[in-house]
Amino acid sequence: MSGTPRSLSDSAGRAADDSVGRHFLLLSGGLDSATLAAWVLHHHPGSAVTAVSFLYGQKHAVELEAARAVAARYGIAHQVQELEPIRGSALTDPDRPLPEGRDLSAAAGVAPSYVPARNLLFLARLASLADAEGPATLWFGVHHDDYTGYPDCRSEFVAAADEAVRLGTQHGLRVRAPFVEWAKADVLRWGLQHDVPYDLTHSCYQGWRPACGVCDTCQARLAAFAAVGVPDPIPYVPRSA
């Protein structure tokens, strides 16, 4: 695929045009949210931007170090919110191993690393924080490749969350996910064109440094870099052929 498809570009443009007030974004420290930070700053220069990260019992809490580094690179305010551990996921349950080496092209159903209603909880907390300060737009970096395995990454969820937040806040906040119709490779391609510091990001669900290279999110990240023909700047555990 060469460049960002027209339909994807149009979707992102509409999200940029109808945002309101301050900007609050979910920043995990991974590839997608780092690109989102760049996207918001690019489309809203000079606006007040706050990045928020969450601790929720995830095995890869090391991602927050990456989130801090990305926020510092972009010079945006950053805060960490701690929630009660969310159970029912291989990403948070100590006795449930994360899958390794799955064929993601053949994967079906809800992913083992889906965290029940995680994005719903994050957006609710983000809305509460933002609504106390005034009009705002809430941003999160879900993309189309997550559609099948993660119910709270679907375009229908984004639209419903936007309506719920608009109706349920005193300042009529809005929710925007500009990459929701994009493939991960499209997100990466846009980020490379805008010098996103991917060397600072962390994606490995195992929380390893170097990254494991075989968990679902490592595989998805490596596949995106392969699709755009650029080497991933972070190190991975060496694997024998």
What report would you give on this structure?
The radius of gyration is 17 Å and the shape is globular. The protein has a 5-stranded parallel sheet with strand order 3-2-1-4-5, with helices on both faces. It has 7 helices and 5 strands; from the N terminus they run αβαβαβαβαβαα. The relative contact order is 0.19. The longest helix has 14 residues, at 118-131. α2 (31-43) crosses α6 (184-193) and α6 (184-193) crosses α7. It is of the alpha/beta class and 241 residues long. Helices cover 37% and strands 10% of the residues. It has a single domain (6-228), classed as 3-Layer(aba) Sandwich (Rossmann fold), CATH 3.40.50.
Q: Keyphrases for this structure?
A:
241 residues; five-stranded parallel sheet; 10% strand; globular; 7 helices; alpha/beta; Rossmann fold
Task: Give a brief description.
With 241 residues, the chain is an alpha/beta fold. The chain has 7 helices and 5 strands, in the order αβαβαβαβαβαα. Strand 1, helix 2 and strand 2 form a beta-alpha-beta unit.
Q: How far apart lie the N and C ends?
A: 29 Å
Provide the number of structural domains. 1
Question: What level of helicity do the residues show?
Answer: 25-40%
**CATH hierarchy: architecture:** 3-Layer(aba) Sandwich
Radius of gyration: 17 Å
Number of strands: 5
| Overall pLDDT score | 90
Write the layout of secondary structure elements.
Elements: H1 6-17, E1 22-26, H2 31-43, E2 49-55, H3 63-74, E3 77-82, H4 118-131, E4 136-139, H5 155-168, E5 174-176, H6 184-193, H7 216-228
